[in-house]
Amino acid sequence: MKVMMVVEGDGCALLIQPEDEEGRALLAAFGVTGEFKTRLRSSVELPIQK
Superkingdom of the source (predicted)? Predict the structure, then answer.
């Protein structure tokens, strides 16, 4: 399984790519078919708006 975290500016993303049947089965156990991609929270805190 290949796991990559991409950081650009103040944003980041996570990519998980299964490379074999075992990796695909592991992701399938969590309801994911194929590869998994998601954006993560920004590393910069935003000001609180009132």
Answer: Bacteria
Residue 3, SS3 per DSSP: strand
Reported pTM? 0.68
Tracing tokens 């103040």 back to the chain, one arrives at: 10
Domain residue extents for the chain: 2-39
The CA-to-CA distance between both ends of the chain, in Å, stands at 44
> In this predicted structure, what is the pLDDT of residue 12?
87
Please report, for residues 7, 13, 48, 49, the alpha-carbon distance to residue 3 in angstroms, rounded to integers and kept in the order given: 13, 11, 33, 35
